[in-house]
From TrEMBL, chain A:
Name assigned to this protein: DNA repair protein RAD51 homolog 3
Provenance organism: Micromonas commoda (strain RCC299 / NOUM17 / CCMP2709) (Picoplanktonic green alga)
Stored PROSITE patterns: RECA_2
Localization, UniProt: Nucleus
Keywords in alphabetical order: ATP-binding, DNA damage, DNA repair, Nucleotide-binding, Nucleus
From TrEMBL, chain B:
SUPFAM superfamilies: P-loop containing nucleoside triphosphate hydrolases (SSF52540)
Biased composition (Gly residues): 305-316, 361-377
Protein name: Rad51 DNA recombinase 2
Pfam families, alphabetized: HHH_XRCC3_RpoA (PF26169), Rad51 (PF08423)
GO cellular component entries: Rad51B-Rad51C-Rad51D-XRCC2 complex; replication fork
Gene giving rise to this polypeptide: RAD51B
RecA family profile domain sequence ranges: 102-288
Length: 362, 440
């Protein structure tokens, strides 16, 4: 492969490409073996070829196949080692402009650093009846709030695996939210209150923008996640709720290794989606009991296992503390652990004291 | 069943790809979707773009059609809710079935409870009734079956009911009695204007109720899976399982909890699918389980330990008090249930220990209610009111009512509300853990 060295373009450090063997690139085995038979071992060897025709001549691939190979090699490793890198200050700037999705409980929002964050997976775990589904419905409504009120004006996708979503209840939450915004709109500066921000924010409009996928089995859930990117772009979705992640995963699998693999795949897909489309992903998890052999005491832990626990960015555990609903921030890359009281009212998630949320007026 | 959908029925896959998939043992959509595209590249010997195209096509074929909440709301009607004062008259159900909309609820004809639940037992999801022995679970089931099968002119749905009776508790005599007492004008020969027609009505009512008696949990699952046709043909709007716990507890011992939970999950999944696709309500009953002693550290372990074992139960921080009771079958099952009702308290005329325990519960429930006029004290109370509570519902807040069992089944007193303590913290010896929280 002496001539390939000569032909190779001499720009930018490509040390990482040297080490990348063809075996670690997603190529069809038959094509890969042809390449290897012709002496192409690393990515650089292939890149050294002048072009697809050259490559095809040397390896016995068809021109179309050779062109595919070259495309496949570009995947993710094009450019320099620093491609796509950002400085922390750039990220800081981006993050400072990110809004969060309000939960409508001030305490809970504060705990979460302003609300459910965009670009992350936030997991809600909790015992049956604690209000996970309620929180999700609330978020579906509040993500649609007009920009004048600090909302996202986005649609919501609700992936329902348990059949808990109730349109009637969503309507109640939507009604309460609309009437709340109407009641505070008089305090808004004139240009905002008269801009007709609320004219689009009616109960029917809200319910029209909550897209519901009812998944009856794991395959359907996988299919939905697979098709989400297109759907999200088409409908301006800013919130994806999966209620719940656990239901199918806890009974459709005998092979735990497969379960872990699929969960990891799904989590990655969702995380990528959250980042690339700037949307918030909320996944609901169930809780399960884990016996502790040392003390003989059973502990209550979120379901789906330890490896899945790494998947979500933020994990919030909802639980009872005496009579109060309490949210514990269990894991977050940027916020301290803490807890906040919240309650579920007719109108949705609220503060315990019944305080009205202070809207930041500009 | 999307999982078993053959790849041959996936649009966008050409013959070449299909044969390649099949020769590599990819036969159903499930086989493809559980793999990463990189695996497909290796296994099928195709390019990455082709592998991704396969996944996209398969995903598109399997993806359930989204509906907006608005469409969902429009497709369901609250109609049975329309006239709720008439537990004996009116025609609420008739207009519901005349339109093509799916009613959102099956009315139980228990006015205050129906109102609290927003119209009745919700369709499309699983509702569960938990209660100790003798609390009136079967009575509630019979009442519901009766209300659902009742003729339209007395407010029923005149639809089919499937009653899966695992404990051999179904009594057709009692059913007939409830029907007569509940709808005397139409069904009781004594009250109806025409005795013969009342008999006929009663007969058609009872003929609409189909009773199945599976003897194992797996048999029940098989039957559920084969039930579709019958459910459609009979226009079934209500499926009752009385009770899930009995079979689960009989069939599986201590060592087989994993299998039990798996089977229960499959049953829950099957029930949900049937309920949602046929617009019917699934109503199951569950037993309670007792946890003696305080081997569990946290209050929340209770409900959970129930999942781990039937011996596990109430308890918690103050689990030292013996006889703390919780719903059986554990948290996994509790998560599967969409709406949970609790029926507690009973006439304490049963035998010693049990009656005592239940008396305790009832007494506490009353104490929680904050105003028991009959003062159901723990001590010597032989008669305590029954209480029915909504402890989990995506729709309505927690609420409890006093109720009683009479000739016409169950009767709920709307004026006597009982405060439901969400975490069950102050219910000393009451049914706890069912709704108890986790302190992690």
């Amino acid at each position: 492969m002496a001539d390939s060295k000569v032909a190779s373009p001499t720009h930018s450090p490509q040390w990482y490409e040297d080490s990348l063997q063809l075996t670690s690139v997603p190529l069809a085995p038959s094509i890969r073996s042809k390449l290897q038979n012709a002496g192409f071992v690393s990515v650089r060897d292939v890149k050294g070829a002048r072009g697809p025709i050259d490559l095809a001549r040397e390896t016995g691939l068809t021109n179309a196949e050779a062109s595919e190979v070259i495309k496949a090699l570009r995947l993710g490793i094009e450019g320099t080692a620093l491609a796509g890198a950002k400085s922390a200050s750039e990220i800081l700037y981006e993050e400072s402009r990110k809004l969060a999705v309000f939960t409508f409980s001030k305490d809970l929002d504060d705990l979460l650093g302003g609300g459910v964050a965009v670009g992350e997976i936030t997991e809600l775990c909790g015992c049956p009846g604690i209000g996970k589904t309620q929180a999700c419905m609330q978020l579906c409504v509040s993500v649609q709030m007009p920009g004048a009120f600090g909302g996202y004006e986005g649609s919501a996708v609700y992936i329902d695996t348990e059949g808990s979503f109730m349109a009637e209840r969503a309507k109640e939450v939507a009604q309460a939210t609309v009437s709340h915004l109407v009641s505070i709109s008089q305090f808004l500066p004139k240009h905002l209150s008269e801009s007709g921000a609320l004219s689009q924010f009616t109960v029917n409009e809200i319910l029209d923008r909550v897209h519901l996928f009812r998944c009856h089995e794991i395959t359907e859930l996988l299919a939905v996640v697979e098709s989400l990117p297109m759907y999200v772009r088409a409908h301006g979705v800013k919130l994806v709720v999966i209620d719940s992640m656990a239901f199918h995963f806890r009974q459709d699998f005998k092979d735990m290794a497969l379960r872990t693999a699929i969960l990891a795949k799904m989590t990655t897909q969702l995380l990528n989606l959250a980042k690339s489309e700037h949307l918030a992903v909320v996944s609901v998890n169930q809780i399960t009991v884990k016996p502790d052999p040392a003390s003989g005491v059973a502990r209550l832990v979120p379901a789906l296992g330890e490896s899945y626990a790494h998947g979500c960015t933020t994990r919030v555990i909802l639980s009872w503390e005496s009579d109060r609903r309490m949210a514990y921030l269990f894991k977050s890359p940027r916020l301290p652990r803490g807890k906040a009281k919240f309650t579920v009212t007719n109108g949705g998630i609220r503060d315990v004291r019944g305080m009205k949320r202070q809207v930041d007026l500009k | 069943m999307a999982a078993k959908r053959s790849l041959a029925r996936v649009a966008g896959l050409d013959v070449d790809l299909l044969s390649r998939l099949e020769s590599n043992n990819f036969r159903t959509c499930e086989d493809v979707l559980t793999r990463h595209p990189f695996d497909l590249v290796e296994l099928l010997d195709v390019n990455l773009p082709v592998a991704e195209k396969i996944v996209t096509c398969v995903a598109r074929a399997c993806c359930p059609k989204p509906v907006t909440a608005k469409q969902l709301l429009d497709s369901r009607t609250d109609d049975p809710h329309g006239d709720d004062d008439g537990s004996s008259g009116g025609g609420g159900g008739s207009s519901a079935s005349s339109t093509r909309k799916t009613p959102a609820f099956v009315r139980a004809h228990l006015a205050p409870l129906d109102d609290a639940l927003g119209g009745g037992v919700p369709t499309g999801s699983i509702s569960e009734l938990v209660g100790p022995a003798g609390a009136g679970k079967t009575q509630m089931c019979l009442t519901l079956a009766c209300a659902c099968a009742a003729p339209k002119r007395c407010g029923g749905l005149e639809s089919g009911v499937v009653f899966i009776d695992t404990e051999q508790r179904f009594s057709s005599q009692r059913l007939a009695e409830i029907a007569r007492a509940k709808f005397p004008e139409t069904l009781s020969p004594a009250h109806a204007p025409d005795a013969a027609s009342a008999e006929r009505e009663l007969e058609s009512l009872t003929s609409r109720i189909l009773v199945l008696t599976p003897s194992t949990l797996s048999e029940m699952l098989q039957r559920l899976n084969g039930l579709e046709e019958a459910l459609i043909d009979r226009g079934v709007r209500l499926l009752i399982v009385d009770s899930v716990a009995a079979l689960a507890r009989a069939q599986f011992g201590r060592g087989q909890l994993t299998q039990r939970q798996e089977l229960l999950g499959q049953i829950a999944s099957a029930l949900k699918q049937l309920a949602e696709r046929l617009g019917m309500a699934a109503f199951v009953t569950n037993q309670v389980t007792t946890r003696v002693g305080a081997r569990v550290r946290h209050a929340h372990d209770t409900a959970v330990r129930g999942g781990g074992g039937d011996t596990a139960g109430g308890g918690g921080d103050d689990a030292d008090s013996p006889g703390s009771v919780t719903a059986a079958l554990g948290t996994k099952w509790a998560h599967c249930v969409n709406t949970r009702l609790v029926l507690e308290g009973a006439e304490g005329a049963v035998d010693g220990g049990e009656g005592r325990e239940e008396g305790g519960e009832g007494g506490v429930a009353r104490g929680g209610g904050g105003g028991g006029d009959t003062a159901g004290d723990d001590g010597g109370a032989r008669f305590v009111a029954r209480v029915i509570k909504v402890v989990k519902s995506p729709r309505c807040p927690l609420v409890g009512f006093e109720c009683e069992v009479y000739a016409g089944g169950l009767r709920v007193h709307g004026d006597r509300k009982v405060r439901v303590d969400p975490s069950g913290a102050d219910a000393q010896g009451g049914i706890r853990g069912i709704y108890q929280g986790a302190v992690l």
